[in-house]
Amino acid sequence: MDEQSPPEAEDDVTVAAGVGHWLAEARLDRDLTTAGVAQALHLDVQIVEALESESFDRLGATVFAKGHLRAVAGYLGLDQEEAA
To answer: CB of 80 within 8 A of CB of 26?
Structure first.
């Protein structure tokens, strides 16, 4: 193995992490809590937590999951279409 192996492996983990990790990282980068995001968007905190844990089955119909995903992504300044 060369010295490049660990960073490449780390990049693979980041890419594989998914949209929930992406949302959580963006939220943490902005020093926001899940409760703060939920309050700002008039959502239950469980919805934000479900998105970040990628527990989409807890959000009901796909249309609701996508809507919540777009709303949270937009609030965090992320690309809403990329999120969905």
So the answer is: no
Whether pTM > 0.90 for this model: the answer is: no
Q: What is the CA radius of gyration of the chain?
A: 14
Q: Which amino acid is at 1?
A: M
Q: How many residues does the chain have?
A: 84
Which of 18, 82, 20, 25 is CA-nearest to residue 49? Answer: 20
For residue range 41-84, list pLDDT tens digits in order.
999 999 999 999 999 999 999 999 999 999 999 999 999 888 87
Helices 45-52, 34-41: crossing angle, 10 deg rounding: 120
Token pair 């844990």 is at which residue? 53
